[in-house]
Amino acid sequence: MSNKDNIRGNDLDMENLFSNEKQTPSDVMDMAVLDMAHLALLENQKPNRSDNVKFRKFAPFMATAAVILLGVILVPTIMRTPGANLDSSTLETHSPTLQPSETIVEKSIQAETNAEAELAEREIMESSETASTSSIASDTTDTVIGVAPLTSAAPPKQAQRQIVELNQIKAEDASALNATKSARSIAITQLPETIQAPAPAPGPESGISNNLVLKENIEIGSRRSKDIDNRSLSIKNQGSNNNNPHSMDANGISADSDIAVNSLQKKQTGKPKKTYRASEYRWVIEIHRLYANAELKNALDELIEFRKTHRESLYENTFPDDLLTEAKNRSIPD
Amino acid sequence: MNLPQENRDATEPSDAELMLGYANGEIRDFEQLYHRHKKALYQYVLKKCSDKSIADELYQDVWARVISSRHGYTPSAPFRSWLYRIARNRVIDYYRSNKSQSLTVEFVDTSETQITTIQQPLTPDELAQITQSTDALQKAINTLPQAQQDAVLLHHVAGMSLSEIADTCASTRETIKSRLRYAVIKLREYLRETV
User: Fold this and answer.
1) A16 → closest Cβ in B22, B64, B127
2) pLDDT score of A49 more than 90
């Protein structure tokens, strides 16, 4: 018999004493321990340390690849996004002080005065070759109204900026606000119906000759036209003394100097070049210029053509209401 | 009382196999291992603490340590020795960190002559009277020194051999034998005085 058995044989009373103990762990404790064991196995199934290390190792590469992939997908989409997607309301927020209807009225009044001024300036232009040379330079450098040329693929921000500049030009015309709105409206509505095609030779004479009422209004504004004549003359003289067209103040490069340029073009080539149609923005400027110069028929023709070429243009909201309405009426087929 | 390892069916997996199976993700192996040792381990912890609430806490804590150490277990050591070493250390740590609670009343060591005089086992009548008192045995255990407590509990509750106890308590087999002999004598003396 082993030593152990001897002990047990001698301690039978102790064996019996301890065997009477019936205390066991409760069922709750059993469940708790077994749940612990089960949870430990579940946690063991999570990514272990080596997996984490691998993930950390390759995470930068994966992030870089994701960024490149996103770029490849998004950049062509962004590049294809035209500026025309901008909502007109968005553009309005960039010029909150602009009041379109009022400025249109102001513009029309300014047109009346500018038309008379253009008649007067023709004589000035014939005697001022140096001034015209300076004006041509300003034209060829795309500084007709003091803004950079806009390509058809101009980004939305640039388009907004140019529209804001356009509105500033409108605001300048407010200084000549003295005439009535009715005169301008009558002049527009009395335009002949046969001007669907663009006029071949837009000029100050054509707009005025077709509008007798407008001439009456020009007589009303004769006093202002004299002032404009003087201002135009001073600009031309300034141009003759200064070869840098950019030295002019932005406000100074007004419709007056534009008139001088176009007049000289007509004189040199016999007919105007419609190069402005290559640029949506320059075309818009030209229409505004014609309207401001009271060349209403030409402005209407240009606007009709413009609307045919540029459907749903952003700039459509910048046109005077009466001109735009008339253009829309003429565009509707009978 | 838990069955000794050598008395189990040979077809049943050993403790070491079950523990390795659990470490590899087999929850059923752990369940089998747990049910095999739960009663003995609980009584060991309960007798060591003499406070059921503390014993419940420490008992679960022991199993928690077994679970968290499953990957560190090596079959070179007997599972039962490994399990009770964890339990014993856990109880000692608990009372070490809670010094206000004394683990047991230190028993005054008796002389060799006194031991020889009280070596007679408890009679059946004495055992019957002792078992009627629910806490007599617990009070008697509490009078033992820690080393003798471990020897008595690991031998009579956990069913461990002297060698396993020596392995668990990091001692020698002869030392464990001596501790066990002194512990039993003291228990008899205390219980006889009680009844």
Assistant:
1) B127
2) no
